[in-house]
Design goal:
Helix content: 55-70%
Strand content: 5-15%
CATH architecture of the largest domain: 3-Layer(aba) Sandwich
Oligomer: single chain
Number of domains: 2
Structural class: alpha/beta
Number of helices: 16
CATH superfamily of the largest domain: P-loop containing nucleotide triphosphate hydrolases
Number of strands: 5
Radius of gyration: 24 Å
Largest sheet: 5 strands, parallel
CATH class of the largest domain: Alpha Beta
CATH topology of the largest domain: Rossmann fold
Order of helices and strands: HEHEHHHEHEHHEHHHHHHHH
Amino acid sequence: MWSDRETHQDCLGYSTYVKVLANICTHKDLAPLTLGIFGPWGSGKTSLMKMLMKHVDTTKGKNKQNTLWFNAWMYEGREEAQSALIHAILANLQKGATLTEQAMQLVEKLKKGASVLKLGTFVMKSVITMTPNIEEFADCFKDESEKVADTMESFEHDFEKLLELVGIDRIVVFIDDLDRCSSSKVIETFETIKLFLNTPACAFVIGADPERIQHAVGEVYKVNDARKQKDYLEKIVQIPFSIPAQDIRDIGCYVGMLIVGRHLNDQAWTKLAESRPAFFEHEGNLADVFCNWIAENRALLTATQESIAKELNGVLPHVDTLARGLRGNLSCSHTASFQLPSPRDSETKKRLLTPFGET
């Protein structure tokens, strides 16, 4: 049995996608931006995002870049989802840094602003559901509305100033499992993202099923028109990337690498991942290809060559049957406007990297 958890190991040929998407996230002329990693449940969104985050962290160069992983589903059922994202970003900026007094004052001001925004949301909800003294409640609503307006107006300037003081060139925020949240939390998260989208140093990467997001738009805003639901999503997500469907050969490589990978350490995994193009392009029996690899790399194995070969020959001939059973986990029928071709196409890779350049 294999774990259903995300992985940093590239069994699906995502390496080219990762490099291009990392260039997009960190390119100086493309921020602020929101990048959508789109696909249905089990299509590999989290794994791709983890690889992307690792690539950004390890290829910073001279730029000072921070990354943040935010699991939106953790805050399902809690009122503080909006302020939690703001607090997480502020905490990330403070990590490993000694802040000046001016910077600390800005952090505290932005934290208070998060509370004001949360309170404003509560008041707006309460005006419909509660019936206290109407005049007193109207005055309260007016006061809080003014606080929210003032906070939103100053938020952008204060946050940009804070980034300048802590010396951050780019912060890339990865938001995962948004499509597991209730519709109200989905929209609340998007509304929070909008606070940062005028700050050039910000980039957001959102992993979600776009159909679920469009459903949330329709449910919260009472919009039944699919085109208008999609328009809302496109206003927030400037660059949508749809994870390509995996064909039988992709799935065969994936399963073969999982079988062999169970008997390798992390260092050896890197060598296995580098061999994926050779596995994919070989025209012969896939089990034979993997058996040849383990024979040539016996020193890397933690089990006997014979036992691994037996497992490969017992599973790989039945990949077509396995693929039908795993189709929900390894395919994606949704098509978005930014679709990268196969990672095995080196010429396409060169063309894709050219417009964005190296960071």
